[in-house]
Design goal:
The structure is a homodimer of 269-residue chains. Chain A is α/β, with parallel strands linked by helices and 269 residues long. In chain A, strand 2, helix 3 and strand 3 form a beta-alpha-beta unit. At the A-B interface, helix 7, helix 8, helix 9 and helix 10 of A face helix 7, helix 8, helix 9 and helix 10 of B.
Chain lengths: 269, 269
């Protein structure tokens, strides 16, 4: 599993204040905590108005890179901003995200074409999120055509099939898993990723839905997620699912995460 | 999901002492707590020497039936004892368990043939637990032949495909889920059940493995489990998985379990 740590996001009130006050210590703390918890990438999302977004990302990325060696997942609703922020990164990371909406792909793909950057691609377009698996897979095929055009290998793509809210659509999981299985069958080296919060939108005890979702999505072939790696219960279920799905020989990763104190019951003080 | 509450089991030290001391209050407390948590059956296992097992079960069953209206799951390694204990039960429950070992089935099936009793059947025989899915399904077919002989409808059977320890067999889950899918495809009305602890035997942080296992087993078609319904996290994941798997319209059961305070974060005192 490729874990993209989600905690440095200006839409989280405590992080938004840290950004407004240029509180580098708090940002560095979040970067370190996610690194220690086992993140593979640190997502960085400023959530500020567009006029100051690139400058804010420059500062955030600088702070994060002083705190950790992990690569950055550059996160912005504006692909123009994403592209402007790439040069601030010391090593290739992931652009978060493109879709078939507008000129997003034609803005990002030419810039990352001859690099090692990855890219999250959402299965939606200018008409929004397709309501059937078939139409999501059509969007996927259009993305893959663009990837081929710009010679971006499938292994650099993180496809997000888009989970909708279970409270309003009882087929939210099956839509996600069916798209995931179809995509992985066709492109085994491609990555499937997801944010974990959409599926539980509008429900109480959202963590339970998110936890069960990650287990079922991994079963369908999801091999990446944008999540809070410092959430012990979530990370524990992730390692448990990996072991159960036969992807952790002799449960060595599970046992090792436990021994490092990253999952399982906390030792009593 | 049909939940068989596992807490009244003499092999649990606190319960063993309560049985030895005929502490009816503690047994009644466990029966009530599991009823309130949402159990459908109360498993009753004496775990005492065979000479006093039937008398002990008579006492336990009496105490449980005074505490709750739920039916009993009569649990003993001895099918002879199970059969002797059935008359103590006010209403039909479940016999736990038979297998193709020895004369277990021929002892139990004739007794429950013309009743509404259910029966747990383990996919093993005198040679132990088969190490391949194919051989487990062979044991299953032999069980179904016996069920047909005694005219026991598949809907009265709780098949336990037997999860082995993941720490020594990385295929433990796939063996379970493949057997489950094959059985459910052939007999849609049959129940699939499992104890949750074997799969995590020998591992640390066992609850995490058990929790991820129940979600993945439900995905494969398991519709019953022998578990501790007072474990909030486990029960919460069970309801979450049910909703995600499209078996809980508008998440009404999930929301209702939350509103009743049975799952989700505990309100702060």
């Amino acid at each position: 599993m490729i874990i993209i740590g989600e905690k440095i996001n200006g839409s989280i009130p405590r992080v938004g204040s840290a950004i407004a006050q240029k509180d580098a210590d708090w940002i560095a703390h979040l970067a370190k905590a996610q690194t220690d918890a086992g993140a593979d990438y640190i997502d960085v999302c400023a959530s500020v108005e567009e006029s100051i977004e690139t400058d804010t990302l420059a500062w955030l990325i600088d702070v994060v890179q002083q705190a950790t060696d992990l690569p950055i997942c550059v996160d912005s609703p504006s692909v123009r901003t994403c592209v402007e922020a790439l040069p601030f990164c010391k090593k290739p990371g992931i652009v978060n995200s493109v879709s078939m909406e507008g000129n997003k792909i034609d803005t990002v793909f030419p810039v990352i074409a001859d690099t090692a950057w990855g890219c999250v691609a959402l299965l939606c377009d200018e008409k929004g999120i397709p309501t059937t698996v078939e139409r999501r897979l059509e969007v996927f095929e259009r993305i893959m055509k663009k990837a081929e055009e710009y010679q971006i290998d499938p292994s650099r793509l993180y496809i997000d099939p888009l989970a909708v809210s279970l409270s309003t659509d009882s087929g939210a999981l099956s839509m996600f898993t069916e798209a995931t299985s179809a995509i992985k069958a066709k492109y085994p080296s491609i990555h499937i990723t997801s944010g974990l919060s959409n599926i539980s939108f509008g429900l109480p005890a959202r963590k339970l839905i998110n936890q069960a979702f990650i287990v079922l999505a991994m079963n369908a072939g999801m091999d990446s997620a944008i999540l809070d790696p410092t959430s012990r219960e979530l990370l524990g279920l992730l390692y448990a699912a990996k072991a159960l799905l036969g992807d952790d020989e002799y449960c060595m990763e599970f046992i090792s995460a436990y021994r490092q104190g990253r999952i399982g019951p906390l030792a009593k003080a």
